[in-house]
């Protein structure tokens, strides 16, 4: 079965998260976005865990669904059939080798009983799991691995947003320089990592250290509108085990490709020998990505000083902000440049194009390909010349979902001819915005030091020529 999964989000119990991030809302928004499997997020928080027990019921093995009495109507009108996979993010804050470490980890669990035991074990170590949906845990990640795998070896431990400067395994401020350095004897059990919004697989393919890793992408969303901005496509059994098998198989396939291209690395095959028997039916198809420039930490800089540097400019200024004279926050692109052992040119030579619906993806060797997308509300907002929070954007968005299907289906699969010829009159600027997004014909001001990048699909002159305005159907909805 082919489906889309977003496995990293947060609940209303995490800091700086919308109070609307509840299970009933996630259920219907996932449906309208085109997401089949949704991570629960925050299973370590006692109040959220109580809601998971109260509002969810078992579905396929290792997955859950919202009980019927809690369901809400969807934008599209059809019934939501979202599945939930038990997930949580934890912040490991500790000292190793005389250096402070702040490493965020994702935990994926197959059942509520396992989660209950994990929560009890972490709390017994002195962690205040009530304080935040993403709790701070004062223990080494190796100790975390030991605890969760003693409880259930089927739990997946996945480093989150691996390049974020302040809170990641390879972050410039507190990270490590290799998987082994961080995980030690547990390194061979790490089969997946989350690339984060500020990088995409093409960037990560430059570092051989990640050749044995399945690179996943998730929204890390704090609001309903942003779920699915990054996600994963699978073709496997709809189950916890099916998803894990697909990821392990992608890791195993990468090991084989790496071994063939790097003689002498055959011990990697031994490390991943348990995955060699995976069947072809378990497949990690592709990832859906932001354009990495949109992420908050793509470039270096200082947000307070409005100073943004690419890696060349950072070297020119010796890593110092030209406004305040203090060191800049080194972003993802620069940090990856320092660790990469393949040049951009070397990777580009081996990247091929892959058609995924109506969009073109990129693939390196036999690794899962990826597609870069701009979210539909961003395209509509650019096309209408307003912000994404505008009621006009919401009205146009709702009408498009009712007319054409889920957001991700519109962005990736809907033929442009259907957008242009349907009885529903789509504003020319919106259809042109989708076309430009698919063709990569736009500009992005890169994000830096915690500030998101900005997408520019049209200039001021073009917006006038395209006769900006919502459709008649959207105007009716807006007026109501």
Report the CATH C-level class of the largest domain. Answer: Alpha Beta
Instruction: Indicate the proportion of strand residues.
Output: 15-25%
Q: Give average pLDDT, whole number.
A: 91
* Uncertain residue ranges: 258-279
Gyration radius from CA atoms, angstroms: 22 Å
The CATH superfamily of the largest domain is known as Metal-dependent hydrolases
Helical proportion, percent range: 25-40%
Main beta sheet, described? 9 strands, mixed
By helix and strand content, what is the structural category?
Answer: alpha/beta
Number of helices: 18
Oligomeric state of the chains in view: single chain
Envelope shape:
globular
> What gap, in angstroms, lies between the N and C termini?
40 Å
CATH architecture of the largest domain: Alpha-Beta Barrel
Number of strands: 19
Q: Into how many domains do the coordinates divide?
A: 3
- The third-level CATH topology of the largest domain is TIM Barrel
Mind explaining what this structure looks like?
This protein is of the alpha/beta class and 480 residues long. It has three domains: 2-294, Alpha-Beta Barrel (TIM Barrel), CATH 3.20.20; 300-339, no CATH class; 376-479, no CATH class. Helix content is 34%, strand content 19%. The strands form six sheets. Strands 1, 2, 5, 6, 7, 8, 11, 12 and 17 form a nine-stranded mixed beta sheet that branches. The chain has a two-stranded antiparallel sheet with strand order 3-4. Helix 1 links the parallel strand 1 (2-6) and strand 2 (37-39). Helix 12 packs across helix 16 (428-439). The chain starts with a strand and ends with a helix.
């Amino acid at each position: 079965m082919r489906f889309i999964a977003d496995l990293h989000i947060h609940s209303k119990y995490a800091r700086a998260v919308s109070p609307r991030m509840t299970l009933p809302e996630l259920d219907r928004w996932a449906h309208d976005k085109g997401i089949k499997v949704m991570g629960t997020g925050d299973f370590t928080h006692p109040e959220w865990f109580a809601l998971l027990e109260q509002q969810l019921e078992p579905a396929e093995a290792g997955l859950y669904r919202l009980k019927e009495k809690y369901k809400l109507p969807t934008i599209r009108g059809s019934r939501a059939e979202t599945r939930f996979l038990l997930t949580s993010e934890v912040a490991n804050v500790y000292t190793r080798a005389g250096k402070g470490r702040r490493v965020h980890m994702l935990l994926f669990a197959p059942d509520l009983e396992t989660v209950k035991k994990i929560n009890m074990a972490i709390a017994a170590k002195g962690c205040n799991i009530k304080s935040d949906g993403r709790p701070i845990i004062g223990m080494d990640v190796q100790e975390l691995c030991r605890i969760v795998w003693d409880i259930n070896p089927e739990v997946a431990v996945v480093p989150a947003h691996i390049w974020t400067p302040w809170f990641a395994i390879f972050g410039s401020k507190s990270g490590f320089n290799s998987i082994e350095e961080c995980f030690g004897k547990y390194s061979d059990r790490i089969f997946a990592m989350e690339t984060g919004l500020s990088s995409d697989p093409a960037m990560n393919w430059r570092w051989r250290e990640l050749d044995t890793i399945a690179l996943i992408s998730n929204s890390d969303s704090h609001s309903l509108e942003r779920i699915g901005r990054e996600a994963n496509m699978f073709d496997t059994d709809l189950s916890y085990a099916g998803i894990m098998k697909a990821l392990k198989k992608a890791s195993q396939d990468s090991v084989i490709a790496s071994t063939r291209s790097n003689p002498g690395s055959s011990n990697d095959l031994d490390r991943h020998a348990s995955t060699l028997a995976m069947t072809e039916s378990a497949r990690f198809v592709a990832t859906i990505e932001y354009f990495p420039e949109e992420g908050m930490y793509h470039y270096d800089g200082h947000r307070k000083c409005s100073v943004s540097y690419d890696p060349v400019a950072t070297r020119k200024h010796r890593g110092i902000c030209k406004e305040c004279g203090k060191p800049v926050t080194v972003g993802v692109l620069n940090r990856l440049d320092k660790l990469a052992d393949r040049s951009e040119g070397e990777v580009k030579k081996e990247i091929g194009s892959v058609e995924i619906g109506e969009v073109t993806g990129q693939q390196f060797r036999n690794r899962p390909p990826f597609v870069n997308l701009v979210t539909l509300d961003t395209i509509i907002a650019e096309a209408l010349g307003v912000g994404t929070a505008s009621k006009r954007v919401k009205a146009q968005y709702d009408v498009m979902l009712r007319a054409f299907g889920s957001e991700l289906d519109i962005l990736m699969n809907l033929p442009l001819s259907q957008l242009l010829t349907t009885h529903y009159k789509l504003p020319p600027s919106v259809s042109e915005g989708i076309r430009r997004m698919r063709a990569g014909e736009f500009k992005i001001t890169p994000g830096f030091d915690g500030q998101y990048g900005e997408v520019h699909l049209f200039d001021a002159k073009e917006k006038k020529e395209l006769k900006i305005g919502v459709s008649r159907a959207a105007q009716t909805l807006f007026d109501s």
